[in-house]
Amino acid sequence: MLTINLERLKESIRALSKIGYNEADHGVYRWGFTDADMEARHWLLDQVKSEGFKAHMDGAGNVFFGIGDYHKKPAVLTGSHLDTVPAGGIFDGALGVLAGLEVLRTIKANDVPLNHPVWVVATAEEEGRFGGMMGSQAITGSLNMDWLMSAHDADDVYLKDAMAVHGLDVMNVLDAAWPPERLKAFYELHIEQGPVLFNEDICIGAVEGISGVFKWIVHLKGKADHAGTAPMNMRSDAFMGLADFAHEIERIIAEDGTDKTRITVGKVDLKPGSPHTVPGEAVFTIVGRDMSSEVMKELADSCRKALSAIARKHRLMFEYEQVSWLDPQACSNRLTQIIENKAKARNLSCLRMPSGAGHDTQFFANLTEAGLIFIPSVNGVSHAPDEWSRWHDVEAGTHVLLDCILESAS
């Protein structure tokens, strides 16, 4: 069995982690299409070109690099994303890209014969600043121009404008789509972002399917008023509406959800935002997840009904925009079995499991056979500065990724 160079992989992860790093909270800030995000993409391009790999960036901001010509023969593609949530960690997404780079280095160093090209992709805007997983959606032909022109983040920055700042034209995004015949298989290595593998001391997760997710931006509009003179029973307090909805989440899940259901209010903006003013408007996000499309529809309907009733109670106007809706997606049974087999061959413990978080794999699964490999997150932490995965787990996951790619490409 081939062996990757763990110290070389560590150095790549550490080098990338410095881009967007914040000394104050120790988080990484590479929100999609920000300066730091684009700096990371150009850093990666320079790095892989200096090592002799073919590389380019497409019109959606996806960075590709690899061995062989995917125009002549279907490629085995691996990768993940480079962007992070604000104050994110150093492994989420980046691990899959840099482990892919280490796989290429290992193949090249050992002069491994391949029947199919092997390429790595660092997808753009996976973390959903603008509502979806734009990079993988572009590659798999899952976007349309109406969405691209109207997509915006929670601060009303439009995708087309954010891309233009960095010399990218949203009109070129649709040209990034790959035809199905260009791909043989897709593998993604990712940290679990949950506690299951870590708590059960299991090294590898072979993911069977990925949760669906919907994202809303909600507006509850009331009337701003003086915090000292407005009687409590005469207020149209938008914050009280938000607080009431937060208390409804547990009931909604109990009545319409499953043990896989997640509903999160993650971003809140109260206007006008003065300590001495009753909030006249609450703008907040709702993100719902489940493994069933039908359950997701019931959850969304229940959220809508609850917010309508709360708005009437507090004399508020309720509006919402559905920014994105991603259905649950099964992974390839064949590739999942290959992942299990390769883990077993390395004497690594392995668990078949679902993913509660969304990943690029769920879009590639519509285009080709797709497999998703998890390694443990220490204490299940992710999307936070203290996100960490142990180096021996990083090494094990990269070895399994290498073995899977060689099986599919040889």
UniProtKB/TrEMBL annotation:
Gene3D superfamilies found in the cross-reference section: 3.30.70.360, Zn peptidases (3.40.630.10)
UniProt keyword terms in alphabetical order: Hydrolase, Metal-binding, Zinc
InterPro entries for this protein: Amidase_Cbmase, Bact_exopeptidase_dim_dom, Peptidase_M20, Peptidase_M20_dimer
CDD domains according to UniProt: M20_bAS
Location of the Peptidase M20 dimerisation domain: 211-313
Keyword Metal-binding: yes
SUPFAM superfamilies in the cross-refs: Bacterial exopeptidase dimerisation domain (SSF55031), Zn-dependent exopeptidases (SSF53187)
Pfam families attached to this UniProt entry: M20_dimer, Peptidase_M20
A molecular function (GO) term: hydrolase activity, acting on carbon-nitrogen (but not peptide) bonds, in linear amidines
Residue sites binding Zn(2+) 1 per the record: 81, 92, 190
Family: Belongs to the peptidase M20 family.
Stated name of the protein: Zn-dependent hydrolase
Source species: Idiomarina seosinensis
